[in-house]
Amino acid sequence: MSEVWRQENSPTLGAEKSILLQQNVRRPWPKTRKNVTGCLGFVKRHLFRVGDDWYFLFILGVLMALISFALDFTVVKLLKAHRWLFEQLEDSNLLQYISWTVYPIAMTTFSTGFSQCVSPQSGGSGIPELKTILTGVLLEEYLTMKNLGAKVVGLTCSLAAGSTIFLGKVGPFVHISSMIATYLGRIRTTVTRDYENKNKQYEMLVAAAAVGVASCFGAPISGVLFSVEVMSSHFAVRNYWRGFFAATCGAFVFRLLAVFNSEQETIIALFKTKFKVDFPFDLPETFIFIVLGIICGLLSCVYLCCQRWLVGYIRRNAFILKLVAAEKAVYSGLVTLLLASITFPGSLGQFMACRLTMKELLSSLFDHRSWGVLSQNATLDIQARVDPDNLWIEWCHPSFTFFGTLLFFLFMKFWMLILATTMPMPAGYFMPVLIYGAVIGRLVGEVVAVIFPNGIKSEGVLNPIIPGGYALAGAAAFSGAVTHTLSTALLVFELTGQMAHFLPVLLAVLVANAIAQKFQPSFYDGTIIVKKLPYLPKIRSVDIGSYNVTVEEFMNTNIMCLDKSFNYTDILRLVTSRSDAVYPVVENSESMVLVGSVQRNEVVKFLQAQREEKCRKEQLQLKEGDINLWEKCHIDPVTFQLSPSTSLHQAHKLFDLLVLQHMFVSSAGKVVGFVSRNELKKVIEDLTNGRSPVKM
Amino acid sequence: MSEVWRQENSPTLGAEKSILLQQNVRRPWPKTRKNVTGCLGFVKRHLFRVGDDWYFLFILGVLMALISFALDFTVVKLLKAHRWLFEQLEDSNLLQYISWTVYPIAMTTFSTGFSQCVSPQSGGSGIPELKTILTGVLLEEYLTMKNLGAKVVGLTCSLAAGSTIFLGKVGPFVHISSMIATYLGRIRTTVTRDYENKNKQYEMLVAAAAVGVASCFGAPISGVLFSVEVMSSHFAVRNYWRGFFAATCGAFVFRLLAVFNSEQETIIALFKTKFKVDFPFDLPETFIFIVLGIICGLLSCVYLCCQRWLVGYIRRNAFILKLVAAEKAVYSGLVTLLLASITFPGSLGQFMACRLTMKELLSSLFDHRSWGVLSQNATLDIQARVDPDNLWIEWCHPSFTFFGTLLFFLFMKFWMLILATTMPMPAGYFMPVLIYGAVIGRLVGEVVAVIFPNGIKSEGVLNPIIPGGYALAGAAAFSGAVTHTLSTALLVFELTGQMAHFLPVLLAVLVANAIAQKFQPSFYDGTIIVKKLPYLPKIRSVDIGSYNVTVEEFMNTNIMCLDKSFNYTDILRLVTSRSDAVYPVVENSESMVLVGSVQRNEVVKFLQAQREEKCRKEQLQLKEGDINLWEKCHIDPVTFQLSPSTSLHQAHKLFDLLVLQHMFVSSAGKVVGFVSRNELKKVIEDLTNGRSPVKM
Lengths: 696, 696
Prior knowledge:
Chains A, B: Its main location: membrane. 2 copies of one chain form a homodimer. Chain A has helices spanning 2-9, 15-24, 30-47, 53-88, 93-118, 127-134, 145-160, 170-192, 198-217, 220-231, 237-260, 285-316, 318-326, 328-343, 358-365, 371-376, 401-420, 430-451, 467-483, 488-496, 502-519, 523-530, 551-554, 568-577, 600-619, 629-632, 648-658, 677-688, and strands at residues 234-236, 562-563, 582-586, 594-599, 636-637, 641-642, 662-667, 670-676. Chain A has 696 residues and is mainly alpha-helical. The radius of gyration of chain A is 31 Å and the shape is globular. Chains A and B meet through helix 10, strand 1, helix 11, helix 20 and helix 21 of A and helix 10, strand 1, helix 11, helix 20 and helix 21 of B.
């Protein structure tokens, strides 16, 4: 060993010898070295693979957490500035009013103006559009980087307008996340040169939706589940794992940044609660939780109905339509002026805890203490400033009591929220719904606490009612009913870092969902319907005789096939006469045996190439060659086809499961028609409206 | 109105008049009455619909909760009896030994004997078989009522053997639940006369798996997620909602029964914990949680590998094979004798907390207090009886310390658990894995607590380490790695009713899963492989060049088609020469245009009917009529077909997604081959082993 070292260190050795030495040198512990090198190589091969999905998912999670944190940070500063300004102007009511209204108006008009100017697609939440994209419809402009910029800036301003306009950030975050995922996917494709794999794009988008929710709330599990429920009707467990990984990274970094920013000592949930874990609720309270679920379910139906009506009304009303079309920013400004005037603390705002931010509203509602007990033991004067340790005081108006404020809040915010959702700027509609539900729950909880001041059973040990638990259940039930999801139950637990009430909350959410799903489409489906985006309605099998409907009854028989024997003129005539996206290719026009299908744009490209070729040949006076569509165009083999006897249900399931746009119908090998999403949609609508299906 | 009343009450009115009156009577508030009647009718129409799924899901949930509770109740009584007997024999070591060993031996031999006698399919956990059933393979004997009885009785006895044999109940419960679901499904079919809908059966089975887990632990959300992850590779959101509903009903009733039985004051989680919610863990501890995840992941690989090896060894070893084949009960008895002798508290058992039941083991491990601190302040004598308030004392051997017992437990239970899983009786393998993981976590946690007695940062406020949190993370990570699921993270939170540690636990589970999924098939997949049940392996796309493989390379071209022009003899020759389950039907043997497919048993039935017909006609000396297979047999239309250029990945996805058993391959309308699960499995195995695919 020592000899080897001496030789290596000797400067007199020539280059050749040194190379030889490097090959044959007797290094210490050759076996161990080999093993270690082998291990390192193994780790390198398995961990550091360029283009591996996990890296991109990790990057996606971290990026979203950074954006979420930066956005929150900015918004908090902006809100603080607004509050500081408002408090400085204590002496003049007029100045206070001006500061209260002008600030949010400036924010919303800028948000609307900027986002509409840069990219008109950036308005709204973005979830309905993403849902449409995931069904296979191409809406490319929704996933551009320009849109991303507009959305981030616009959202920051929308949120900075605070609880006056009462909007959140979940939807836009899902949208932002999917835009980043698309961009990362493009980088991945460039790096790995794996241009073929379209599946990856889809998988990334699904994971992105989960990351969006997770990085908003620091809630990875419910983020994944929420995105699953909202986004798709079928789910691969593989994608669920990816979503989990990315969402955990996102949520972890998001909470980590809060610790680094000294907001918290360590990683804990977003909203701290102190519910009694030993005895969170008494058994008979379960019934009240179920009643709360029923209330939330019914109210959500009314909300969804009114919301759709108002959006429809705005699209019909000539004056508003003109205003919105010409000056979107002015419309936003006017709406904000109305909302801000109402929420001004000097006027009606004092009856609806309007000085609290969105986060403070939720914190105050999740308070484990009963406000009834608290207000008996405190002096309830209107304070000049918001006391961060006693947020509940904002709800306790000296003459109006907190029952009054809660009821007034419910009444006013109902239409104010619906009005706010019509503003064409980037904003989410989940957080306000969550808060609204928490208010419903809190009201019920406080009423129960007043009726049973010592708890329901009250034998021996006192187990007083915890109204915060009801607020939790109300938030989960109402938001779950509006979005048609069950995972909101888990979301509120991840938000509060405890799950003492998990069974009653689940029951409330189930009941509310049952009612809402029975009578109304979800918020996102409703938006898709109002915005006239393509979608496939669900079959409500029980009411209508849908089980007996077969493909034969609704397929489109008006079909034109490309024959293998077609010449240039035939093909040209076919393509000019019909504008289907896909043409079936048959062996010959008599047998009609389906061979495959060809995209319209492929055929058009082929025709153009042929014409040029023809011109060139004519110029050179060459004999015209045989035109062969079949060699130049890519003919897709037929993987899926329907039979005329296939049931509507099965066809629907296939379109849904395989994200198809069209399918040919063949009977005994012969093509007899085709079914696209349009035909399916039409037959389902006909059935729902009681009409019998009409063949197209 | 008064007149009406008088008339109605008058006895002199004739029957005719009374009928007339009933029709025309002027009742009070006709409009309100009509509305109320309308409402009631509406509720009746919408709620009380015979055969509605929700009722069956509800019944399923309640039934499973009742079974779970009754089983737990019986097992607790049996275990108490055993403990009482053991404690009564305090004076004689020998008698204690006999009582310690004979009781579990009696239980396991009875369990094995009874279950094997009634239904040999009732052994083991049942999850692997259910997983196979959900891929579309018919294993009917696994879902019979006879099997249900054998499983329930056998499981009760297995569990009554206690922590000696260290087995649980999750797997059998999933199995029991699916058997009940099948039975309920049959009732539903009878009631609604909806014989067609095979989908419902599948949907009920998926929900049943969720109910099984939920009613074991009272954990509905993780029950649903666990069943989704374990059971299938794709799931419909619709089924997820059904699962949620049924699982919530099951979990709620299960916890409700505990309250009615005065075990608890109100509905709370199964394992109470008192973790510090304000500061559950310090930021640097996250790294230790990740290290714990790595340890659990690696150990799970070793465990899975050894487990598969032992099961394989037993199937090869001539002596054991003979013993198991002849006398399964004797084999169980011998194994139990060995295990019970080792765990006898007078011998090695004192070093592995063997006096605790499974539930007590988990409770003691989730304790929020540090055993290091506790053992300093207490006298650690070996107690005659188990102290239910200080279960941790069982772990603290006076001379061996708790580090020794934890390590010894890990070492011994490792092979004892693997040995126990070879006993052919109904028992679950999830709970022991969960406990084993908790022990790993606890050990790591206690070590960390010793190294950092005042917490890691220890500036100002003391935030001591909570070893219970590590136990939680270890349990989730190890059980998650063994079963390849992430939902165990949620399960431990639902078990303990809090989620203070949710991010570090998720990280640990993710890391452990990444390692385990990389190197080993899951426990259930491993069992499927060892038991040689049909299954479709996953494609590990990165290692092998699977993206370039097309159907052409591995399809089975040895195909025989039924021609429309075939006569009786031709068909008979075909059917006798080949025993495919499905035959393709072509237009004629030259064109080979695929028209449809026909089941073998349909053809056989047809041939039998034809022969009888023929005999009858010959007897009557009638002219032989034309044989028409096409009118008498049901020819299934071809909905899915592959093209030779379809990629392996896409074909695999279709088989997986659509639960298919076979698909025909057609090129330009002509059938050229077929692919079944066998071909797919073979090509994937070939690729994994580095062989190039061979056409069959």
